[in-house]
Specification:
The protein has 94 residues and is mostly helical. The chain has helices at residues 2-15, 23-50, 73-93. The chain has one domain (2-93).
């Protein structure tokens, strides 16, 4: 799913590259919308099967006791910055 999303994003950026850095805003909105829909479906499934919105036993952000794992924020930020740099490079390349 992530590869498909990045591939579609790269394709759209090449089509919109004549608009410069503004093209990143168009692609970003579509990706955020798709991710929000996917997350909403997952939250509804968890709420109906487990009674809570988060599956604490399989969560990367929470311990089974419900405490937040703050050390997972660093890779999450690294992933977002990498995607931004990738889209920026493709926008200026074409």
């Amino acid at each position: 799913m992530a590869g498909f999303g990045i591939g579609v994003g790269n394709y759209l950026v090449t089509l919109l590259s004549s608009q410069g850095i503004v093209a990143l805003g168009y692609v970003g909105v579509v990706a955020v919308f798709a991710l929000c829909i996917g997350r909403a479906v997952q939250l509804i499934k968890n709420k109906s099967t487990l009674g809570t919105f988060v599956n604490y036993n399989k969560s990367n952000f929470y311990t089974p006791e419900g405490k937040f794992k703050s050390y997972n924020i660093i890779p999450l930020l690294g992933n977002g910055l990498t995607n931004l740099v990738n889209l920026s490079a493709l926008t200026f390349a074409y």
